[in-house]
Amino acid sequence: MDGLAGGGFGSILILLVVMVVFFFLMSIPARKAQKKQAEQRAAAVVVGNNVVTASGFLGRIVDIDGDAVTLESPAGDETVWLRSSIAAQMDIPFADAPEDSEEEPTSLPDMEPVAESDEELAADMNYEGDPNVDDDSRETGDAPETKREN
C-alpha cells in the first residue's frame, strides 16, 4: 500500500514541475514585449514630441517635471499627466483645411411644406388619435385632458 501512495505523490509532483516550466516559457515573450514598450515609452517622453496617452489624448510635450508631464492640446490647452500614462509617440492627425476656398457654402434646396396644417398631416398619416386624449380638446385648442376610467 505504501508504494501506491508514493507513486501518486511523485506523479503529482512531476505534473506541477511541468506546469511551472510551461508557465515560465509562456511568459518570456510577454516580458519581452513589456520591455520593448517601456523602452519606446521612455524614448517618447521628450520635450517637443507629439504623444498619445493611454486614454487616447493627443498632445505635444511642453514640460517634464519628474513624473509629471505637461501636454499641450492642438487647441492650445495645457494639461498635466503622469509619465506612466504616456503610451507612445504619435503624430497628431489634423484634418486638411481647404486652401483658398472662396466658394459659397452650399445651401439646402428650397423645400415645399409637407402639409398645410396638423389635420392635413394627420390625415396623410392615417392618424386615428390617442385613445387617452379627449378629441374635443383638439377642436377648442385647450390643453388635452387625459381620459380616466373609473
Which SSEs are present, and which pair or pack?
Elements: H1 2-44, E1 50-53, E2 58-65, E3 68-72, E4 78-82, E5 86-89, H2 118-124, H3 136-140
Antiparallel strand pairs: 1-2, 1-5, 2-3, 3-4
Average pLDDT confidence is 76
Spatial order of strands in the largest sheet: 4-3-2-1-5
Structural class: alpha+beta
Biggest pleated sheet? 5 strands, antiparallel
Number of helices: 3
Query: Which residues form runs of ≥5 with pLDDT under 50?
Result: none
General form: flat
What string gives the helices and strands in order?
A: HEEEEEHH
* First and last CA, distance: 85 Å
What portion of residues is helical?
25-40%
Strand content: 15-25%
Strand segment tally: 5
C-alpha Rg (nearest Å)? 35 Å
Please give a structural write-up:
The chain starts with a helix and ends in a 10-residue tail after the last helix. It contains three helices and five strands, in the order αβββββαα. It is an alpha+beta fold.
Supply database-style keywords.
single chain; 150 residues; alpha+beta; 5-stranded antiparallel sheet; 3 helices; 5 strands
Task: Write a brief structural summary.
By secondary structure, the protein is of the alpha+beta class. It is about 35% helix and about 15% strand. It has a five-stranded antiparallel sheet.
